[in-house]
Structure formats: structure tokens, C-alpha cells
Write a structure and sequence with these properties.
Chain lengths: 344, 344, 344, 344
Amino acid sequence: MRAARLHAYRQPLALDEVDEPRVEGPLDVVVRIGAAGLCRTDLHIQEGQWAEKSQVKLPYTPGHENAGWVHEVGSAVTNVAVGDTVIVHPYISCGLCRPCRAGDDMHCLNGSFPGINRDGGFADFLLTSARSVVKLDPSLEPKAIAALADAGLTAIHAVKKAIPVLGPGTRAVVIGAGGLGHIGIQCLKEMTSAEIIVVDPSEPALVLAGELGADRTVRVDGNHVETVRELTDGLGAEAIIDFVGENGAVNDGVAMIRDGGFYYVIGYGENIDIPTIDVISREISFIGNLVGTYNDLEDLMTLTAQGKVSLHTATYPLDAINDAMADLHAGRLRGRGILIPAEA
Amino acid sequence: MRAARLHAYRQPLALDEVDEPRVEGPLDVVVRIGAAGLCRTDLHIQEGQWAEKSQVKLPYTPGHENAGWVHEVGSAVTNVAVGDTVIVHPYISCGLCRPCRAGDDMHCLNGSFPGINRDGGFADFLLTSARSVVKLDPSLEPKAIAALADAGLTAIHAVKKAIPVLGPGTRAVVIGAGGLGHIGIQCLKEMTSAEIIVVDPSEPALVLAGELGADRTVRVDGNHVETVRELTDGLGAEAIIDFVGENGAVNDGVAMIRDGGFYYVIGYGENIDIPTIDVISREISFIGNLVGTYNDLEDLMTLTAQGKVSLHTATYPLDAINDAMADLHAGRLRGRGILIPAEA
Amino acid sequence: MRAARLHAYRQPLALDEVDEPRVEGPLDVVVRIGAAGLCRTDLHIQEGQWAEKSQVKLPYTPGHENAGWVHEVGSAVTNVAVGDTVIVHPYISCGLCRPCRAGDDMHCLNGSFPGINRDGGFADFLLTSARSVVKLDPSLEPKAIAALADAGLTAIHAVKKAIPVLGPGTRAVVIGAGGLGHIGIQCLKEMTSAEIIVVDPSEPALVLAGELGADRTVRVDGNHVETVRELTDGLGAEAIIDFVGENGAVNDGVAMIRDGGFYYVIGYGENIDIPTIDVISREISFIGNLVGTYNDLEDLMTLTAQGKVSLHTATYPLDAINDAMADLHAGRLRGRGILIPAEA
Amino acid sequence: MRAARLHAYRQPLALDEVDEPRVEGPLDVVVRIGAAGLCRTDLHIQEGQWAEKSQVKLPYTPGHENAGWVHEVGSAVTNVAVGDTVIVHPYISCGLCRPCRAGDDMHCLNGSFPGINRDGGFADFLLTSARSVVKLDPSLEPKAIAALADAGLTAIHAVKKAIPVLGPGTRAVVIGAGGLGHIGIQCLKEMTSAEIIVVDPSEPALVLAGELGADRTVRVDGNHVETVRELTDGLGAEAIIDFVGENGAVNDGVAMIRDGGFYYVIGYGENIDIPTIDVISREISFIGNLVGTYNDLEDLMTLTAQGKVSLHTATYPLDAINDAMADLHAGRLRGRGILIPAEA
């Protein structure tokens, strides 16, 4: 089969011919990839930022945001059958360790992460597990929903954590209305009663944010922190949902948070660097967020099926992977870039 | 009356003769000070670290950790009467704003903080409010419990936030077994089922920690982070309770936290400075803590009355305030320093 | 002033001339009544059902759902001024007991309940407290919002408790789309992502429910329990929100609840009567609900100002109180009945 | 192998010779039974109370509280190996449905319950699943801990739900200090800071309760409800933990609950029968409890290993099953009865 593989850091991916993965364990599932989302993390992988953390051996196949059709199943798989349309939770968890038994899949003590530390979905087929596939209505097209497997999943996971602090009269400031943020806005709209204030440097992104439910949009213009403080009675917002985490977003966000408020860290790149005296005298908290659970993904698929969340994407054939990565890097993508190895 | 007042930053306090405070509003309460705890924050105030934040006008009287006897009450005060023994919650809250109506006293939108931004308790009398006094058993001596008004209150407040993550089999790492920490350990013991690991550079502090309920004590010796990781299956602890917040405590604490864990910030001095990629890939959270609520203080007085929390203190007469501050600064104090303007 | 007073149980109210209430304590507030909602509880009071619980001495003035304009304030009142438009929280709480300090107004240990155990709002003026008035935009008409003070408050209070169990893909069954229910539906729509199934015997009520956001409506027709079970995959709903509590509603509700689910008791009249073996083998829970907190009322006013909650009412002059009660008793009222002592 | 089987309701069990169970699926585990606890539910099964609910086909083998050693494992089992000492979670859950993915094992949509609706542990061997076995220290004797698999698990599950309402100064009333209750008392002591009041008709049970941590013990003597109300400031307790659920326990418990409080239903037999007007005017809640999760069982084993929970038991050989049941029925058992098919 074809696989877009990374042979060396800071080099383009190569479209290689490799062996198809096969089911080995009783809970294994092989998925024929219908669509694979392209993530800023894939750029960071190519740049080598994850080399030490992931310890992955090159060459390997990135791609951690996948959807397609079940191609082969292990002997103990009962939740999907060959031919089923599925979206693939990005993590393979064991199901038996304590975090798994608590529903906290991402902290599985025996897990692996296709596309990060083993072969992922920029290929014709992907080896995953019964625990990682969510069965979908057969009418759904993988390319219409693949981006929910990671971008959307991360967004809903963070928003769910924020629900208890986002009652009537509160404000949520969303930093970044891009691939993750535009889903986060819709989740906030559906799952909380907060007023949603979206901050982004791009006017088209803000227009999209408004269409998706933002109550207020604020352009990053040097005065945006002050503008947000004015929109929040001079006190700041109860929640900052930061989908950017670089280029000054964190300092901006800290300045926009209300005393007693919560900062949800999702985007990454720069440091949180804050005096502990500010953390205690303002009693503010920073909440980390790592993708989401299997049930989070199911929830998101439910919201999508109900028409409450929709995606904005741009598609590329698999062999245009490097063009897609260049477009993402250059900021030429609107919404999420999606690779299409195969049509149904 | 006598009041130990700060006339200039970086100067000793002066013992001045000033007018006694009098009740003006219907909810005002004047307390005759029986004991006033000395806090590291008083040193920071003297050094000028709070000058900008508090906007207090010099000269003024510090002292935010007070207990004594009710001396005069306003017309609408129903919860205490003249002569009652009371401990004084450090904050004066309005009772009518939204945070007050939610029980979140410390974020009152109209509050003031005696000892920080108005006259405090290093004096014979203190003006406070009916909302800030907890009535005690008349047999209690103010000097025996004054330190619970701030040090203890802050400790229990943070521990209460940690309860949901500290079930059986979990570990709480307490950084610092001093004035706050030695109360925090007792609260953790009483309110959670976590194994308690205490980290401190002082051997006597660790001995005290062990007597108060620590399951493990670890001396700060350069290898202490590694030791804690070994004591936590190589994975780190579910909760770090940091009563220090300076001299490298934060970096140590971050290295000792388990993926998915929580860092409770209480001590202050240095910065949290951490890459957002670590916050998200490890899904760790930092929780700010600011003193505690009125009900937290009541809870702590209950635990004290039940014999579950006890204090270690050293007492000074009011006119020895500068000696006490010098002892605190030099690390010569064991437990909490307490000033005694008056005996019952 | 005029007051509609109950002189004897099971007798009509009499429109009496009585003294105006005056401010006595520093936190007292006298409100000129602009509108007073009529509640099924007023019928129950007239019937004598509350006589023993309330211990009220006849004659007295019912009316616990009030809005109007501030007429006189005590010396320590800072949150409202004479002339302000206000809605009146139904309970007078002390602000100093432990439940008050936790924001749990309704369980105040020193409270009183105008309209239940002291004179209420079926009159020209009402004596209440600074702690019980929410200041409103002066453009708001009391008659447009008075019903939120009790019916709406109770509905939002119960819905807020249900938020944690009403994520995407869950179902909430609302029993009763009347005075409380039609507000509950709107709160569920705004504050949760559950699918909302409304059960009611009245076709017009179901039509209104659909307009207000119900996803499914089910007529009480003998087969309605079965219908709801079919609409919930044969498993029942995660939450039953019962605004009726009589005429068989409880048995119906229990049969419609999913294993592990929650039953929110709001309406009253009949008994919960269920074998404990069913409670444990199905692990179902029954959650009591008593009006709501001051902050709940503020939240509801926020949702109303944002256009997310709207009321359906029918108005009567004060001297038509007995007509209004007869209409309510006979089921001739659509939405909430509102008495209007005075126009602005 | 030997199995004590029920051939007809209201008849003694028969000790039959039957085929040993064998591993069939990849996650199957066969456990050699070292100890099987006897539960009041086994009496109820024999009486036919569960016949309709369980739909079990006679003859079959009861016994849902098991511990022993792993005898055979399926091909995909990774968490235990042959020879391991294990305690057996009473439910077999699928691991793939939504409740399982949330850690909510007992509500698995595809589960089965050995001893209730299929063959249980009153036998030499038991067929269960990798998902149902907790690996123990090899030094632990099955008979010392088997009763934790159901009695203890149910107790800790209920206590964990009560933690948020049982802070300092609160009271928990434990109804019943028998097989479940004596573990519940220890869990309350370790996991909450509530004062523990234990109510039981048996003086020896109350003595044991006191040794295990009860702060107050109250004999059921007709005046016990009044006694408990006096011990709770005339207001009742924040939590009632009812391990009995019959013989008037529920009415007693309702009379002992504080307004705003919670009633945890664990024991069963009689009905909850309460006017909804009391549920709403007192805002009390009833919380169902069904055994516990896998992680609850792990937590309990941790507390046991730490010496914080200990069991009181009486042992019988397997062929004395009917004697054991007679002793339980007659109230001759102190602590939990344990059947011992085999020694290590």
C-alpha cells in the first residue's frame, strides 16, 4: 500500500510502497483510510520537536486524525464489522489499566499513539484497535468528519472541562478561530450559556466565528486585550480557552482572565511564565488539555449528527501531502486540511 | 491604643499610640486583639513587594491573622456579642455581590483586607465586620489559634480543592512543612486517603511532619526529586501541594507531578515557567489558592476543636514585633510566630 | 394600602385595607408591588395544606412571586436605591449562618418566607430585605418578569443540578409544560446539550413546548411511557425533570428513567413510593428541589435579558385575585397568572 | 468439580458434581475459588425475590463475592497470569459500551453477573473475565478478603458518593453495622472528616462500630431517632448511609436527615414511601447505589493493604453452605460468612 513517510527530520515526506498492516491480536482492527486530517503537530513532527518525546524510529508514517472503513477485525472484536464506516480515536489504549478503567483513555499506562510514535494514517490502511473506533452512520463520508478525530476531539474535551464555570452571565474568551477554535466555538455555544468572545488576527476567521455562534469578535490589533477587558466589565473573563499558545497568546490570555478564573491550555509553542504571586493573589488556574477520551469523541459525533457542529475543510489527494503541509505552514489553509487516500 | 505601624518600606515598624477604632456601620465589629500571627507576607509588605498591589497609604498597621474578644458591635450584628472570643477571617466582604452570594468571600467585589490595604491587627484593637468573625468556645485562648486565621485557612482551602483527586492509592506531595505546611499535612490526613509525602530541607521540620501524619518524608538534598519519583512508581504524584513557591520549589514540583495531575500553588516568590507543550502533552494543571472562605475557617476551627489539627507557635509581646520579624526572616522560628497585645 | 388576605382556610381571600409596611432594620427594603405571580402553592395554602408546616397566623397576605419598585431602604442597604426596578427573591435569608455563607440561601437557619409564613406580595407594598432584591434594567416591566421569581427560579435551580448528567446524546424528559415547565424547557435548551422530550396531557402545552425548544413532545395518552422508552432506545432517559408530581406523574417518571439515572422532583402532591430493591438494582436517584438561590435568580434574569428565556402570562388586577385563583384551579390559565396592584 | 447449586426456589442448595468451566474467549479467566462470601442477597435469591429480575435458569450456582487464584487465562489476557492471587469484581463488563468507557462498569450494556444470572462462586472454579480480576499480593489469603468483593465494594462505592457532602463538622448516620456497615464505617473514617453516628439494634455490633471508628453509637430502642436528632443539633445529619433498607429503617432515616441532605440507599427490602411535598420543602435527595466499579474495588484493596480497612468473618467449608445460610438467616453470624472450597 502507499504511505507518506518521514525519512529524516526537516525533510519532505516520501510516498512509499509498504506492506499493508494485518490484524494480529484479538482486538486489532485495520481501517482503510478514507480521510486523514493534517495538523500543526505534523509540522512540528517534521521539524523534529517531538523526536525526543515520541522516540519514534524513522522512517515512519505520520497522520493521527483518521476516518475510513473497517477492513479487517480481530477475533474478539464485537463493536464493529468489516465495511463499517468509522472515525478513529487517535490513541490506542489497553482498557485494563487504572486510567482506562476510569474512562481516562489518554493517560493509559500501556498506550500507543499512531502517527506520533508508530505508523499513522497518511497511508491506504491503518492498524488500530477495537477500543479506538467509533462506528458511524454509513451515509457519513470520512472526509466530512476526519478532522473531528483530533482537532474536534481536543476542542470538545477542553470545553467539557469548562462547563462548570460557564453559567449564565459568564464569558468565555476563545483565542484562535482556526482548525480547533472554530469547533470549540460551536461546542461552547451548544454546551454552555456563556457569552463567547473570539480573538483572532484574521478577519475571515472572525467572520466565520460570528457565523458559528460567537457573540463578540475582537481582532488582534495591539489593543485587543483592553477591548476584551472592556467587554467583561473591566474584570476579565471567567474562562480563557487558548487554542493558540504561541506568539504572545499566553500573556494576552492571562491579562484577560478574571480573578478566580480558569485558563484552558490547548495550543502550544511558547511558555507559561507567570509570577506565583499573581497566581495566588488572583487565584487563577491553568488547566492542561490532551486530546480527549473515546466518549468525548462519541459526544462530538453526536453533536455533528444533530447538526450542532460542522467542519470547514480543504481536501488533497494523498500524494499531495507535501503541498498540503506547505499550505498549512504558510497559512494558506482555511479550516482543516484533509488528505484523501481513497473514496468509498 | 498601641499599634505597630509601617512608616516607610524597608524600615522597622514603630510602636505608635493611635486612636482606637470605633463601630460606624451596623455590621461593624471591633475586636480586642488577643493574638496576631506573623506571616512571611508581613516581611514581603515591609520589603515593599505589595506596595503597588495593595495601594495602601503609609503609615499603617499590618497584621492579617487575628483572634481576640469582641469589644463593640454595630446595631445589626446578631452573630456575636461583646465579650465573645472570636477568630477573625482576614477579609472583609460585602455579602451582597455575586461572589459573596456564592460563598466565595475572597473574590468579593467590594472587599477590603485589614493588614494588607487598611489597618490590621498588630495593635490593641481591630475594626472588622460581623461577616468576618467566627465565634469560639470561650475556653479557647486567642494565642492558641490565631495562626489558623490565615496560615491555617490557606492550607485547608487548598487541601479542600484537592480532595476530589486524592482517593485511596494516590499520593500528595507537600512541599514545605513550615507555618502553612504543618497544618496542610494534618488537613490532608484528616480529609483525604492519599499517602502523604513531605519534602523539606529541614530535618526538624520533617520530624514534625512525621509526627503530624506524613507517610514519607524526603529531605531536600539535590536527589529529592528522584526520590519522590521512586516513591511514586516512577510516575509522580497526583497532587503537588506547594507551600513554598520559591527557591526552585516550582521546578521540583513540576518534575514530581504525575501526568494528568494537579499542582496547587500556595507559596509564592518565583515564577511558574513551563513550556505549554509540557502542559498539554502531560495534561497537568496549576491551581491558584487565595486564603479561604469564611466556611473554610469554620471547618478548620471544627477540626481544631475535634483535636484533629494542632498548631506549633512561638509568642512575642506586641512591642517585640521587630524581633519577631527578624526571627522569621532569619529562619529562627519553629512553627508560627504570634504577637500578644493582651491577655484575656 | 390594599392587601388580599386569607382569613380562614378554604375561604376566598378578602381585599383589606391595612397599614403599609415600613423599614425597621438596616437591611430592610420595602417594595411597591408591580406584579405578583399566582402559584399552585397559593391554592394549596388556601386549602390548608401548608397550615402545619408554615405555622402562619391568619389573617395574612399570600403572594411569594413578586416584582416592583424599591419604595424605602434601610440605612445599610447599598445594592438598591429608591425607585429601582427589582425582582424579589422569595426567601429572606440572614446572610450569616453557614448555609447562607455557602450561597445556599434556601436553607438559611434564620430565614422567613413572605407569602408562606409572613405577609407576601398580594398587596400594594411588601417588606423584604436587601439580600432578596435583584436590581433590574429600569426598562423592564414587573409584570413581564414577576413569574421568574418563583416558577422560573425553581425551574432553573433544578435544571442547573441536572447539567452534569445532560451531555451530548443524553435525553431529558420534562413532565409538565405549564408555568414552571415552559421555563424549564428553555433553561434545558440553553444550558445543556440533551435532547428534550416533553410529556403533557395538553396539546396546546405541547405546541408551546415545541416552540420553546422541545425536540420531541409526547401526549399523555396511556401509552406515553412506552413512547418515551422507544424514543430512548428502550433504556429510558438520563434525567426526568418532573414539574407535576401528582396524578401518576411519579410512577410514569420512574418507568421512563434509565438505569443509573436521576429523577428531579419539583412538582408535588403525591408520594414517591418505590421498592428499595429497584432503587439499588437500577441505581437510580431522586433529587429534591426547593426554589433556588439568589444567584440562580440573577442567572435567570440574565438569560431573560439575553432573550433566551421568555414567559407566557395572563394578568389580573389585584382585586380580581379570587377570579385568578378560580381560573388557575380550573385549568383555564395558559402560562402564569399575574396580579397587578400598580402600574409604573 | 463441586458446585453448590439451587435447583428450586425455597429449597436448600445441593452440592453437585459438574464440569469445570474452561476459557473460551481471549479475555476469559478461570479462577480457582479460595473463598466465597455469603450475602443476604443469596437468601433473597433462594426465596425467589430475584427470579424475575435475573431470569436465571435453574439449576445454577450462586456466589457473587469471590477470591482465589488464576487457573487459566485467554489468549489476550495481560493483567494476570496463572497462579496469581485475585479478588473477583462481581460483574463481567464488556469494556466497549459507553458506560464501560466512562468507568461505570455496573451499567455495562452487555454485562453479566455470575452468581445472579449465571454460575457463580459457590464452587471449585469460576469463569470470569480479565476485566473482573484484581491482582493481589501473593501473601494475601482469599478468605481474608473475599468479602470485600461485594459487601466491601458496595460500602466503599456509596461512601465515595458521599464524600463531597461530608466535610468537617458534618455528620454521617450509618444505619446498620453488619457485613456492609462495618466496612462502611471504616471507609467513612478514612475518606471523610464527618462525625460518624452508628445506629443498630445489636449491642455487640455497636461495640464493634466503636472500635472501628464510630464517634457515636445509638441503640435502636424506639427512641433512637430522637437521640440522633439531639446529637445533630436538632437538625438531622447531612448524610444517611442506610445499609439495612428494611424493618422501618427508611422511615427512621428520613426522620434523621437534615434539610438539604442526602440519603444513600444500599440495603433493600422495604419501600421508600414519602410525600413529594416533603422531598421538595426539605430539598432532600435519595441516592441509589449498586455494588461498585472495578476501580472502587482496587481502592478498597489499597485501603486494606494499608491497614485502614479490616474484615470480620466466619468461615465454613463449601459443603456446609446450607448451615451458613441458616446462620445468616437466623442472625447468628457476626461479620461476614465465608465459604472455603480450597486452601492455597
